[in-house]
Structure formats: C-alpha cells, structure tokens
Design goal:
7 helices; single chain; mainly alpha
C-alpha cells in the first residue's frame, strides 16, 4: 500500500485586526485630539479680533502724530505766505543742503499720513469676514510688532470673537482631518495593497 502524502496549501498571510483594547485606546486618543484641536483653534482665532483692535488703536496713534507733524509744516508754510507744495518746491531748489533735505522729509511725511489714513479707513469699513484679509493686505509690520510686544489675550465676549472662535474650530479640524489624517490613511492603504497577495 502506498500512502499519499497530503500536500498542505501554503499559509497565506492575513491581516490580523488589532485587539479590541487597542482600538478602544486609539479611538479615545483620537477623540481627545479632536477636543484639543477644537480648543486650540477656538482660543487662537478668538484672539484675532482683539489683536486687530489693539493694532488699530496703535495705528491711529501713529496717524494722529504724523498728522500733527504735517500740520506744523503747513502752519510754517502759511506763516511764510506759501502752501505746503510751494514750501517743498522752494526747499528742493535751496542751495543749503539742510533746506534741500527738508523737501524730502515733508514728502515722506505726506506719504506716511496718506498710507496710515488709507489703512485706518480700510480696517474700519471692513466686515467681520473681510477684516483679516484687509489687515493682512494693509499691515504695517513695525506697528504690528509693537502691538504684539504688549498684547494680552482677552476672553471673547463679542459676537465677532465668538464667530472667529467657531471659525478656528472648523479650521483646526479641517486641517487635521484633511491635511494630516486623510493623507496618512491613503498612504497606509496603498502600502497594505502593495503587500497583499497577488499584488504586482
């Protein structure tokens, strides 16, 4: 009698699902991370209106000071029977180097007043949703740094602050789920598919 040797099929590698406790811990960690992101996004975005308000106050202080200096030049020109433009033109043609530089100082001051006034008007007339974009477009970095150096966070009590807090929650969750979690999940799926039996 001949005994036929039984041939066993080769063992196939099958993905073993993680234990229940690991899935539970992973789910709890993800829920905790979502809550942390919600809080972080709400806190950060809710401070933006307060920072812009303090920035606007400092900008208006610079505008008032620049306007005061410009008014003094206008008064000096009027006392000499000239307009400000005539004072600048006369300074440019003066052989005295100090008087010649005066025209450049006045022109720079006029441009500074116009720039600050335009930024102030744009921020004041912006809506809740357009103000951050106007702020970014018109920002004066020197004033922004000075504002940041004395900035103190405040609890949002206005509708604008609460609106920005909600926007911060949405932004933080979208950034995590779409910008971090989804790409990682796709990469893991491609890796698992590449290791699957029969994959080329």
């Amino acid at each position: 009698m001949f005994w036929m040797a039984s041939i066993r099929p080769p063992c196939e590698k099958r993905s073993v699902p993680p234990p229940q406790i690991i899935r539970s811990v992973s789910g709890a960690a993800e829920r905790l991370l979502d809550r942390v992101l919600c809080v972080a996004g709400a806190v950060l975005f809710s401070q933006l209106p307060e920072f812009m308000q303090q920035y606007l106050q400092r900008l208006e202080g610079h505008l008032d000071e620049a306007t005061l200096q410009l008014d003094r030049f206008k008064q000096a020109a009027a006392q000499s029977g000239m307009t400000l433009d005539q004072l600048v033109a006369g300074s440019d043609g003066n052989p005295d180097p100090a008087m010649g530089r005066l025209g450049g100082v006045v022109r720079s001051l006029v441009e500074r007043v116009e720039e600050l006034a335009a930024a102030d008007a744009a921020l004041r007339h912006a809506t809740v949703w357009t103000r951050p974009f106007v702020f970014a477009a018109k920002i004066d970095w020197a004033i922004a740094r000075a504002t940041w150096s004395i900035f103190r966070p405040a609890v949002p009590t206005t509708l604008e602050g609460l609106t920005y807090a909600f926007a911060g929650i949405v932004f933080a969750l979208a950034l995590y789920h779409l910008g971090v979690k989804a790409p990682i999940a796709r990469a893991l799926r491609r890796r698992a598919a590449a290791r699957a039996p029969g994959a080329s």
